[in-house]
Amino acid sequence: YNIGEEERAGLCRLLITDRHLFGTRPYNIGEEERAGLCRLLITDRHLFGTRPYNIGEEERAGLCRLLITDRHLFGTRPYNIGEEERAGLCRLLITDRHLFGTRPYKGWLAGNLKML
Known about the structure:
Blueprint: H1 5-8, H2 18-21, H3 44-47, H4 57-63, H5 70-73, H6 96-99, H7 110-113
């Protein structure tokens, strides 16, 4: 996946934990959250169902709606999307290297992601 620098800059705060995915924690997280991060690798294979998530079935039901597009990341579309959105997916690959800081994103979009 190739991410332009303008997108790369905005992804640093998209730290996804099971608490975030299942609604017990808002998307406004800091360093204290990193230890609880779900090891979530989102690829086209995951999003389009040819590679399952390595999680229980009850979690899979929640993750299927986490389809992130550039419109979501940049605030013009809410996080409530269906099949029509799949074609517009941002080329977003979140790996442990990104989440745990060995390949960090830099963060001008951090403030905007708080609305999530």
